[in-house]
Amino acid sequence: KQWYQRRVAITAGILAEEKSSRVLERKACLDVLGLLRQTKWFESRMSVSLIVVLQLLKDLSKRIPAWSPLSTWSLELLVERCARTKGYSSQPPQFSPPEVLRRVFELFASGFLLLNSPGLNDPCEKESVDVLAYLTNQEREDLTASAQYALRLMVYNQLYKILGIAQPPALKNLGQVPRSAAPSSFKQKS
Question: Exposed, middle or buried, 168 (CB in 10 Å: 0-12/13-18/19+)?
Fold first, then answer.
């Protein structure tokens, strides 16, 4: 079988003169279709806990220069992928927002952006497109170092510094245990 394709355009005489000013550019139409695919993907994959983490990362990208080069789409993909690292399923595992945030920092801190990494593929494109290909080497190094620092802060229970909020009163004396409250195995002999 041989298939033929024909394009027929029917316009009114009045519109034929205005046609050049009313025709949308092909690239603009393709960009809008891409955004529509991304929106559908986002709605089908994101849960409430992932949206919370996404909002935190968007805030982080506004406050910390190392995170500012990341686009919203790349942040959405990263958050979703970090929540699915225990295997693929149609619904993401139910991780709490701090767990997902820690996984995002661990991913960046591991250096996945450096050297010959495969990058982050766009699931909405037919061809293999790296969503993070636009990052320079310096931006990649800055993101890695910043994530390592943020991960250290999380480990030492200083998440409030990452979030840019005041230290909660409950955490001020968290590391200091009164001598009388320490278990007997930790008390020094007199």
Answer: exposed
